[in-house]
Amino acid sequence: MPVQSVPLASVTIGPQSWRDDTVHSIRRAEHLIRQTHAGRLGSISRARSCSAAAFTPRRTDTIEVVGGGDTHDALCKNKLRPQNIGTMFPYATTATFVVPFPPPCFREQCAEASVGVAREYMRSVRKVEGEIRRQAGRVAQECIKLERERGLLERVLRTLRCEMLINKKSVEGRTIRPATTETGRDGADHLLECEKRELTELKQELESTLRSTVAQLQTLGQCSRQLLDCASERARVLELLPHTRSGSLSAGGQGTPSQGLIKLPEPIGPFTPECKQVLESSALAVNQSQLLRENIRQMIGNAIARQKAAHRTVNEALVKKIAETVTLKQNLTIMSAATRQAIFRKQRQLNCIRHSHDRALGPEYSGDILSREKLNRPIVKVYHRHPGTQLPEAAHLIQGSSVLRRCLLSSEEELSRLQGTCLQLVANLHGKRAAEQVDSAVVRLRRQLVDRRAMPTFLQQGLY
Prior knowledge:
Radius of gyration: 59 Å
Distance between the termini: 91 Å
Protein name: Tektin like 1
Pfam families: Tektin
Coiled coil: 185-216
GO cellular component, one term: cytoplasm
Subcellular location: Cytoplasm
């Protein structure tokens, strides 16, 4: 209750100075009592407001979470650490009034405030650690997918090497053709060279892509190790918290990849600049890996299509060359038969001419000449008794012998030319037959080796 002064009597007996001194003392005590009471009430109310502000966590900043993940995966960062001693312990300092003594539960209040600050900090750290581990799961899944693409690249490269071996064996097989007429360069040789250049170019492109894939896998592995190290470092303050879905990788890394970057990292906060750097580098590596996988799919499909086109073109050229060889071989067979028939006719004609020439020359021994063939036979002698009665028999015999000799020589030359042509046709026929066998063997070899490769259907069609 407020202190009130007692009214004095209207009649005074004591001296005025004595009375004034006493009244002055009483009023001064009353003023001090009122001043002390008002100061105590104001300080208590201000102390309560400061205490409520100190023990209530304040959200002074927020964080945008990367990516369209679930709401429970979002990270929220609060400035929960006290800014100074006065905000956490309101009874420790004074501003414009005298602070009363701390209450008896001051120690418990300080401990409770510290526990609250530590609990909220740990929860924020657990959210950051969960996001880091989910990102590590996404990186691990991307490593698995990229490893699968690398396996496909290696299989296609093995197929290309086998195709280059087939090309080399085809070129070597065609070198055993007859050296006289069938070793000239043709369209099939040109296509084999084009196939070799095409396969070499494809091999170099795929090997370069394979090197890029291996380098990207190493980058993803390094990002995964950095993420796990960062998550382990963040988890050092999470030993006393229960394991919940938000703080562990219970989703198996199936969350959506982050689309943005966590903002406002602090060196001493739950989300440090190191965490931000690791998340950004891992997200960039995942995006690069996805682009590389799309490029690998396109390159594999293109390589398979080009490889099949080159192989089919060479096979069709060889088959066409075999068909041309068979056609020429048939024509050679027909012409060689006609040439042999002409040789036989010319031989019979030559025999007749030789026989006629021998008959025109007569026997070699004069004793074998018949009487009717002699130029001095009795009828001729009787005919020559008159002047100017010469017979042209001897001149006709000489002319006939010379004509027969010329026919014999020309027939022998024609016969020799026919025989040479026939031999050339036969040799050419044998060369064509050997060339056909060699090209047929090369085509069979190419088809057999391709069948032995047994390329999977999803690789041949490029559908994977």
